Amino acid sequence: MARNSKELKGSEVKKLTLISVLAALSVVLKFSPLKIPFPLLPYIKFDLIELPLLFAFFVLGLRLSLVGGVVMGFSIAVFNPGSAFMKFLAFTSTMLPLTFFWRNNKWLRNKYLGYLSSVLSRVAIMAVANLLITPLIHNIPVEFVLKILPFICLFNLVAASYNVLGGYWIYLAVEKRIGRISF
């Protein structure tokens, strides 16, 4: 009995170590110059901050990837609380629908439906969030946010797409090279 609990503790330490490294990588990516301005609204930028956390979702599951998201959010909040909240909301609205399709390192249902639900969830939730929160954070009239909302939705569609697909492709590449990742 003691041997099993010792192995479980070792497994938990490995999981916590991996999510710590991936959360730290997310923070580094947030403050790195690796950003691409969205051509239609250049003050909004594509970044790679969510990729390590979505990879973490595919390897470690929802609970630990959320822990990584919280670490990422608090790290950003030191400099910009509004941006941190919006980034965490974007990340969770992208990731949560995947939990209905992915568990224990395999697809439970159609992976294309999982991808689509994840992307549409982010677009819808971030549209509402931008209408409610952006005017408060940036002191911008709601009318202006309504005018740019289609572009914000397009931005979130693209961002969710490359984050989910990128996180999954990284997972597949790592699995191909070192085998199934299990703890």
Question: Summary?
Answer:
With 183 residues, this protein is mainly α.
Helix-residue proportion: over 70%
Query: How many separate domains make up the residues?
Result: 1
Q: Provide the CATH architecture.
A: Orthogonal Bundle
**Low-pLDDT windows of residues:** none
Q: In sequence order, what are the helices and strands, one letter per element?
A: HEEHHHEEHHH
Query: What is the percentage of strand-forming residues?
Result: 5-15%
The CATH class is Mainly Alpha
* Radius of gyration (Å): 17 Å
Helical stretch count?
A: 7
DSSP strand count: 4
For the record, give the distance between the C-alpha atoms at the N and C termini, rounded to a whole number.
18 Å
Furnish the topology, listing elements before pairings.
Elements: H1 2-30, E1 36-38, E2 41-46, H2 51-60, H3 62-77, H4 81-95, E3 102-103, E4 106-107, H5 111-132, H6 134-138, H7 142-178
Antiparallel strand pairs: 1-2, 3-4
Question: Your description of this structure?
Answer:
- The protein has helices at 2-30, 51-60, 62-77, 81-95, 111-132, 134-138, 142-178, and strands at 36-38, 41-46, 102-103, 106-107.
- By secondary structure, the chain is mainly α.
- It has one domain: Arp2/3 complex 21 kDa subunit ARPC3 (Orthogonal Bundle).
- The strands form 2 sheets. A two-stranded antiparallel sheet has the order 1-2. A two-stranded antiparallel sheet has the order 3-4.
- Helix 2 (51-60) packs antiparallel against helix 3 (62-77).
- The longest helix has 37 residues, at 142-178.
- The model has no long low-confidence stretch (mean pLDDT 89).
